[in-house]
DNA sequence: TGACATTAGTCTCAACCTGAGACTTATTCG
DNA sequence: CGAATAAGTCTCAGGTTGAGACTAATGTCA
């Protein structure tokens, strides 16, 4: 079991160590969740984000990708650093300094000790991991409008309603259907596969795939109203 | 001399150490610059960003503020983490892992070993510091439209042309005067002091100060055109 | 079978925002 | 005085946005 290979380094925490912790985000049923490992048993049951220590000379990004792959099975299409944490809070490996990474993944059924944990109920995560999830979600929300990470949440083929739901789940607010589609149209990001999916009730939906086309970068003036 | 107090920790680099490095950004004459310390002498002359090591139990943010204060004389009004770097590149203290912070400051005349270094000529900075400056500037550019950091570049009283220049310098592109002022007006960020400054030629300019007023947060739809 | 609920997808419109150029005002310089 | 220079203002066409109303295709159930 891949998840056990790093156990030796985990069971010997020492002062002054550095950890890499990864927040793997996915969404399902209009809820965001993160991949967490169940630790302890019965009454002592707790959870932990996937983490590890960088090998000597290993780049942080590489270590993060490795840790994500171990937990999820494959390397995420997008992964980004979300900050360094050393605030004296509890870390499962006793690390004093932790570098947090965030990735976005399609939802799958995880194996063995791994679970999708709703981002509402983080109480059973160590304090530092809770802060990391907060930071990670904020990075994802910002990146959502700058990089095509929403497509990483969905399977290769999806309906526009599913895509809109992904955006709504991440942003935590409803979007107007017509406006969303208009923006999508103008962005040349998707193309129809030609197939349709009838999901029980209602009109069948056209299936789309992510297929970005070259576009002119729209440089606009300053937006002081966001400030 | 404050800059020397941490010398002892600097002269004893060891493997596996962590450093905090701070990119202190300012602008002058339409050019961005960062505060750097001159190291070595004559032909061996090089430069280094202010850096240090966190004290045991010290929070990263606190350490960064301390290091910035040592280099600049006072703590910056805004300072933010810009990422962790451990890519095997050269660091003046031999740190394997460096956490980078960025702050924005009004230009002053620095003391003793400190210089304002133009962001164009970074060749004499260690490789890792060069990467940090790149990352820091990108953070500043993003934050500029989300937080009132531009005002940290200016003295307490300034003209609108100076403010616009600050924005242009950071963003690296010209802005339209009328549009900039209209956006500023709508944002309720500044108020006139009532005084005027005549700088030689041309009509005297009204002086303003930063005085933000409560405003409704303008939540807008998704902007897929930036992606 | 036919009304109805449900979901997908489209159209239109008023209000607002943006970029740009042209204009007015106040000052120094020669 | 008039030209040069910089500050500050006005207006307008065109684009973008939010919102509601509309059509379309399917399953459900009486």
Topology:
Two copies of one chain form a homodimer.
Chain A: H1 7-10, E1 18-28, E2 31-39, E3 46-48, E4 51-52, H2 60-72, E5 79-85, E6 97-104, E7 114-118, H3 127-143, E8 157-159, H4 160-171, H5 177-187, E9 190-197, E10 205-210
Parallel strand pairs in A: 1-6
Antiparallel strand pairs in A: 1-2, 1-4, 2-3, 2-7, 5-6, 8-10, 9-10
Chain A binds a DNA duplex (30 and 30 nucleotides) through helix 5.
Description:
Two copies of one chain form a homodimer. Chain A is of the alpha+beta class and 227 residues long. Helix content of chain A is 25%, strand content 27%. The first copy, chain A, has helices spanning 7-10, 60-72, 127-143, 160-171, 177-187; strands spanning 18-28, 31-39, 46-48, 51-52, 79-85, 97-104, 114-118, 157-159, 190-197, 205-210. In chain A, the strands form two sheets. In chain A, strands 1, 2, 3, 4, 5, 6 and 7 form a seven-stranded mixed β-sheet that branches. Chain A has a three-stranded antiparallel β-sheet with strand order 8-10-9. In chain A, 34% of the residues are buried. The model of chain A is unreliable at 1-15 (pLDDT under 50). At the A-B interface, β5 and α5 of A face β5 and α5 of B. The structure holds a DNA duplex (30 and 30 nucleotides).
């Amino acid at each position: 079991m891949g998840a056990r290979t790093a156990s030796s380094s985990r069971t010997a925490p020492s002062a002054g160590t550095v950890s890499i912790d990864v927040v793997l985000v996915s969404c399902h049923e209009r809820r965001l969740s993160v991949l967490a490992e169940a630790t302890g048993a019965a009454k002592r049951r707790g959870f932990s984000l996937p983490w590890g220590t960088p090998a000597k000379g290993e780049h942080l990004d590489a270590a993060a990708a490795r840790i994500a792959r171990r937990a999820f099975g494959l390397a995420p299409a997008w992964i980004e650093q979300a900050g360094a944490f050393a605030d004296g809070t509890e870390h499962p490996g006793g690390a004093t300094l932790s570098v947090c990474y965030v990735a976005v993944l399609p939802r799958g059924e995880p194996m063995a000790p791994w679970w999708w944990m709703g981002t509402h109920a983080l109480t059973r995560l160590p304090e530092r991991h809770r802060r990391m999830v907060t930071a990670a979600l904020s990075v994802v929300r910002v990146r959502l409008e700058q990089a095509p990470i929403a497509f990483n949440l969905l399977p290769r083929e999806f309906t526009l309603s599913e895509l809109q739901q992904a955006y709504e789940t991440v942003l935590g607010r409803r979007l107007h259907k017509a406006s969303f589609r208009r923006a999508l149209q103008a962005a040349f990001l998707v193309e129809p596969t030609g197939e349709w999916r009838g999901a029980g009730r209602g009109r069948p939906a056209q299936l789309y795939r992510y297929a970005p086309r070259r576009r002119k970068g729209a440089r606009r003036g300053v937006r002081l109203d966001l400030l």
